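Submission checklist for the structure archive. All mandatory fields must be present; incomplete records are returned to the submitter.

[x] Identifier: CoA transferase
[x] Organism: Pseudaquabacterium inlustre
[x] Residue count: 408
[x] Sequence attached
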Amino acid sequence: MAHDPTLALTPPSPAALRGLRVVEMGQLIAGPFAAKMLGEFGAEVVKIEPPGAGDPLRNWRLLQDGTSVWWQVQSRNKQSVAIDLRSAAGQDLARRLIAEADVLVENFRPGQLEAWGMAPEQLLALNPKLVMLRVSGYGQTGPYRDKPGFGVIGEAMGGLRHLSAEPGRVPVRVGISIGDTLAALHGVIGVLMALRHREVNGGQGQVVDVALHEAVFNCMESLIPEYSAFGVVRQPAGSALPGIAPSNAYPCSDGWVLIGGNGDSIFKRLMAVIGRDDLAQAPDLADNAGRVARVAELDAVIGAWTAQRTMAEALAALDAARVPAGKVYTAADIHDDPHYRARDMILQQATRDGHTVAVPGIVPKLSATPGTVRSSAPRLGDDTDAVLAGMGLTAAQIAELRARGVVA
């Protein structure tokens, strides 16, 4: 993949996934997010999009010159090849790409690849080393496999939506597509484990099956053990952390501050800050169980202290006492924060339309092989000719496919 000279980025460095070839088939969030992460750490990612509109994410949320600024993040370090997978010729081109790939990422509904003659057994016969990441609403098996599933449904079925509310009020969205992102992260973990297995076990590939609701459910902590052992159905708790105290959001004169005073020694320091040494020394508040029993009282006294102060005043006092606390950041807060800047978590990225936009940096931070942005997000089909030529097609063959509408 060619380096884009318009990007003012970090110098080239050894890439953890250099030499890894990824074919991305799918759209929107979960599958493309997983491929994005692989690309950030050096993998060559070829994204197959349908001719015409391409991935719908190109047109989601706020657009700049007709293209979503979200696209600039989700599709950096990728090559775009426009192929009509509904045609037999397009399916053949996809199979030829997959035959030379290490990883295939797809998030179609279960059965779609099979309908195109690309079932796992067929692709693994074509390319035995292939690792296939398949992300779907309910997984590739089970009674719900054919139901349509989006991230928001996975969040509900996984147990998250029930808890994301104030008590007695309607369950609310987290505010982002967290179900899709959690599925993507689990998918990346699965791909890396499968690649490690391939490395030590004779080069054999396999299928990584990720269901949206299972990725959410995997993060639900003690939800099921508590139900199994005690018959307790955990309920919404708003901004509090149930069973752990004190930990909540507290009102200041100009906003909200989050305080985590739930460690035994931290609690004592917190009480000293707010002038309640009597509570710091109370025998029944020396451990978490006792504090949970009096959580309403503790939240009230902490809230009374914060309400008399600005966020800056409260945070300065809490920081000095080494009590974990923070403000509720908005996009503007994140964009201007010096800590985000110091850790390269806000990057200036050029677009192929001549703009520069601030985008999130790369996570995680690797000391020897850090992730990089090597190319900006492509326009639809930007790399079709180059990729097909690399597969051995002549200019005349590519032109004939384009005339038939197979590629664009």
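[x] Structure attached
Curator remark: Residues 41 and 328 are 30 Å apart (CA to CA). Confidence is low (pLDDT under 50) at residues 1-9.
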